[in-house]
């Protein structure tokens, strides 16, 4: 396996990682920002208030994006297995 092929696999892995984890991270970021904004506007300074809405939103997003994430990971595994089988 050449260094170019290794870089291709690594680059593809990073892209798949961003495709699989990105939507959940964006949902957590948006919900966290919204809850923080509500806390700042209402002057509620409860530190644990942010966790429940964020957990619920991330689990809902996980159920929504799970087929897409599974397809991205399965496609990556198929490409890696093909490279292993062909000896590239």
UniProtKB/TrEMBL annotation:
<keyword id="KW-1133">Transmembrane helix</keyword>
<dbReference type="InterPro" id="IPR002191">
    <property type="entry name" value="Bac_export_3"/>
</dbReference>
<keyword id="KW-1003">Cell membrane</keyword>
<keyword id="KW-0282">Flagellum</keyword>
<protein>
    <recommendedName>
        <fullName>Flagellar biosynthetic protein FliQ</fullName>
    </recommendedName>
</protein>
<dbReference type="GO" id="GO:0009425">
    <property type="term" value="C:bacterial-type flagellum basal body"/>
</dbReference>
<dbReference type="GO" id="GO:0044780">
    <property type="term" value="P:bacterial-type flagellum assembly"/>
</dbReference>
<comment type="similarity">
    <text>Belongs to the FliQ/MopD/SpaQ family.</text>
</comment>
<comment type="function">
    <text>Role in flagellar biosynthesis.</text>
</comment>
<keyword id="KW-0975">Bacterial flagellum</keyword>
<feature type="transmembrane region" description="Helical">
    <location>
        <begin position="20"/>
        <end position="41"/>
    </location>
</feature>
<feature type="transmembrane region" description="Helical">
    <location>
        <begin position="48"/>
        <end position="69"/>
    </location>
</feature>
<keyword id="KW-0812">Transmembrane</keyword>
<keyword id="KW-0472">Membrane</keyword>
<dbReference type="GO" id="GO:0009306">
    <property type="term" value="P:protein secretion"/>
</dbReference>
<keyword id="KW-0969">Cilium</keyword>
<dbReference type="GO" id="GO:0005886">
    <property type="term" value="C:plasma membrane"/>
</dbReference>
<dbReference type="Pfam" id="PF01313">
    <property type="entry name" value="Bac_export_3"/>
</dbReference>
<keyword id="KW-0966">Cell projection</keyword>
<dbReference type="InterPro" id="IPR006305">
    <property type="entry name" value="FliQ"/>
</dbReference>
């Amino acid at each position: 396996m050449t260094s170019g092929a290794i870089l291709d696999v690594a680059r593809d892995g990073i892209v798949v990682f961003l495709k699989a984890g990105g939507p959940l991270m964006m949902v957590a970021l948006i919900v966290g920002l919204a809850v923080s904004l509500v806390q700042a506007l209402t002057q509620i300074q409860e530190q644990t208030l942010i966790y429940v809405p964020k957990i619920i939103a991330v689990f809902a997003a996980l159920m929504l994006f799970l087929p897409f994430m599974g397809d991205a990971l399965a496609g990556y595994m198929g490409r890696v297995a093909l490279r292993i089988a062909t000896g590239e």
